[in-house]
Backbone:
């Protein structure tokens, strides 16, 4: 028995070691591209063209000087524009998607299933397919060079609605909703005070994805925004590339690094809510 137990302990240690090695390897592979990007932001164009390096260089100040000379690149203005669009779109996405998912779970009405099927069908349509019609619509409404067309459409997010609905089906107990109604709490107040705290892990998860998607969005802002003072950071970075005879790659990597830094901040701020709320449920029986 002692030999069997010792062999079992040894095998468990080996399995743990393998798991740790695989996790460390995956972590390194995930971090490596970002590290190379930050390192290249400190290198000159000849150094970048000579090959990959994992050691930072000394050309960060020179790249920063070049990037400030670009008339189309204003890091502060671009950051504020991107933050306004991404923040507004993220709030619209998570709140109204949660509200829609709550309506699909908590209320029983005849068209509930067809409505959910319609939402799933809309999810299959790529945004590029409707881009021309959307631009014409915004042009006739005189909403070009405006942030509202990039924020308000985020209210309709089928994928987020699907995720929130599945989360509520697993965590929401209707006894809470019925008790709130008996106590005289309104439907909107019930959602804001009771349902939203239950959905914090799901909201934090989707907020990260929505913020990253809107922050990195280049397609629609490039179409709708033509004034320099309205440019977002991704547009400014895309304009950093010069002609075929002169391209400052160090400057481009520095612009990409500036664009990526807020995403790390948002992830570190919201990730703790995901980890802390994995086991969160509506009612513990």
Residues:
């Amino acid at each position: 028995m002692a030999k069997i137990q010792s062999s079992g302990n040894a095998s468990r240690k080996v399995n743990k070691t393998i798991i740790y090695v695989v996790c460390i390897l995956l972590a390194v592979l995930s971090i490596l591209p970002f590290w190379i990007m930050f390192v290249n932001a400190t290198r000159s164009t000849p150094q970048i063209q000579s090959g990959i390096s994992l050691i930072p260089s000394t050309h960060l100040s020179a790249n920063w000087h070049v990037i400030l000379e670009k008339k189309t690149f204003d890091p502060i203005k671009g950051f504020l524009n991107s933050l306004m669009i991404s923040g507004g779109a993220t709030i619209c996405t998570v709140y109204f998607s949660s509200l829609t998912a709550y309506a699909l779970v908590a209320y029983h009405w005849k068209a509930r299933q067809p409505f959910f099927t319609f939402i799933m069908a809309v999810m299959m349509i790529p945004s590029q397919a409707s881009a021309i019609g959307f631009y014409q619509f915004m042009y006739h409404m005189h909403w070009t060079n405006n942030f509202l067309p990039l924020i308000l459409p985020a209210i309709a997010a089928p994928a987020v609605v699907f995720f929130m609905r599945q989360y509520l089906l697993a965590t929401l107990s209707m006894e809470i909703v019925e008790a709130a109604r008996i106590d005289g709490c309104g439907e909107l107040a019930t959602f804001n005070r009771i349902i939203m705290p239950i959905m914090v892990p799901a909201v934090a998860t989707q907020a990260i994805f929505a913020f990253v998607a809107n922050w990195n969005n280049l397609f629609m802002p490039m179409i709708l925004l033509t004034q320099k003072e309205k440019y977002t950071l991704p547009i400014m970075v895309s304009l950093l590339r010069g002609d075929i005879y002169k391209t400052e790659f160090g400057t481009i990597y520095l612009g990409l690094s500036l664009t990526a830094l807020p995403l790390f901040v948002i992830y570190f701020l919201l990730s703790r809510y995901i980890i802390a709320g994995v086991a969160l449920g509506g009612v513990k029986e």
Q: What stands out?
A: Residues 279-285 have pLDDT under 50 and may be disordered. The radius of gyration is 24 Å. The chain has two domains: 2-62, 71-276.
